[in-house]
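Person: I have long wanted to understand how a fold can be written as tokens. Underneath my words sits a plain record pairing an amino acid chain with its backbone structure tokens. Those tokens are not coordinates but codes from a learned vocabulary of shapes. I should like you to check that the lines agree and flag anything odd. The protein I mean follows directly.
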Amino acid sequence: MVAGNMGFTGELRTRLQTLKTWSFDTPFEVSDPALHWTELEGSSSLVNDITATAVEILQVNSCQIVVLVNGSDFRCQAMHWSRSAAAPRPSMQRDFYWARNLLQRVILSDTPVLIGRNDPGLTSEERYTLRALPNENILLIPIRIQTEPAGVFMLTFQPMNLTLEQVKQALGLADQAGRALH
């Protein structure tokens, strides 16, 4: 019995030390809160709620929050599709390599970027990476934490009928996403 407890305690102590120090094995910069948040805390219900709210209020096909990690890479942090648009989309995690240049341009801009469904500037690889169907328009809004770029708030929708009020609401939701990531 004593040997069993000692073994359990020793094994548990080793596991706890490993669990306690795992986050310090991969250093991160204090100035990169999006990386810290995604690696240590994972998906947040608040960020998921923001994407679901965006789809519901703005009546769009999908909403994604893509965060900047390691200075130049991107990772999808939250995603939500409308019921009508969810069926044809694969839900597996995508590598944003093909869309990295586009996302970097968006994250460094001060204004939203609207890409029409027939825009020849968007390749099929970029459209696939962003989970946008060929007949969808894309609105990309840079997310900032204070003044630092943190990610991209992305909406897809089919008819080109977003009103100015809906765009203002999308900008507000992108701002909330930035605060949630902080």
